Amino acid sequence: MGDPTSTKNPSIKGDRFVARREGVKKTYKVIKMDDVVSTVTSDALLAFRKKFYFPNDMVVKVPTRSDRACSPPPEFVTVYEFSLRAGLRFPSSPELSDILTICGVSLAQLSYRAMSIIMGLIVLFRDRGAVLSPDYLSRMGRLIGDTQGRISFRSNWLDIRTRDPSKSWMSDFFYVKNDWNLLEKWGKLRELLISLHLGAEELLKILKFSDIDTLHYEVRYLSRYIDEEYLFKKSVSFKIIIEDHIQEARNHIYDVEVKALEADCMEEGFIRGFMKGVRAVQRKTGADIDGLTPSQASGDPSSDSCGEEIESELQKAFFP
């Protein structure tokens, strides 16, 4: 028997391989901002309020399926979730508002890197008793824009560990009431002019650093300045955050007092319980009730007081 002939044709196999290589090439579609629908829900906004300490009176809005990040509703600005992780807090700091206004861009145009560096520098300057101005920022680096209007920050000596780990950032946007006169729709970047008179020596003087190496060290590890500790210590919203929590605590304590008061009324009678209620209201509001004496407002009726005496006190308090 002769050698068996193969039914496979190597040339055909090679031709198919070449055909696959020279055939239809894969094309990667660039996702445009106008094509992205927000995935933020009402529950997500509640979580943002708690995690990032939104002021109680701040108005937020969940985008509809027809809404887009580039075109927020009138009197609202677009905010990305990554901006909050990059150090953005509300109300917006005056330094950030000035930079955005001069550059002619909206809040949502700043990338994670740009936002984290700007917020980090704001906190660093405040920590050193100074205020970050657009001139100072221009000496630290350069804001640059891409074809879609996104703004990043380029510098040879600032913190380079500022890449956003999130892959779904484009759909994580929502709207916030524009109480700071920020640009609402996306604009074209106007680059900051570099002040020729502002050099390294001037920065050292402003920030109270002894040498340039110290300044380089601080800004190279700038990301630590957007930690919660620094944001709480130096953020404009710190006082408001504390007041909000105090008010929540007062409301909780008052609710507890009212429940205890209901039990007192059942056990000790309505008049004694009513007097306690008046004092609870005073502690809640801090307001004076006409005719109520300090002794009546400061302590509980004595245990040996009879109903007639308590009723007499009420008559004096409310019908002088």
What does it look like?
The protein is mainly α and 320 residues long. The protein folds into two domains: 33-236, no CATH class; 240-318, no CATH class. Helix content is 47%, strand content 6%. It has 13 helices and five strands. The chain has helices at 10-22, 42-52, 81-85, 94-103, 112-127, 134-140, 200-207, 212-220, 228-234, 238-268, 270-285, 294-298, 307-318, and strands spanning 60-61, 76-80, 142-145, 151-154, 173-177. The strands form two sheets. It has a three-stranded antiparallel beta sheet. The protein has a two-stranded antiparallel sheet with strand order 3-4. Strand 3 and strand 4 form a beta hairpin. Helix 10 packs antiparallel against helix 11. The longest helix is centred in the last third of the chain and has 31 residues, at 238-268. The protein starts with 9 loop residues before the first helix and ends with a helix. The mean pLDDT is 76. Residues 293-305 have a biased composition (Polar residues). Residues 288-308 are annotated as: Disordered.
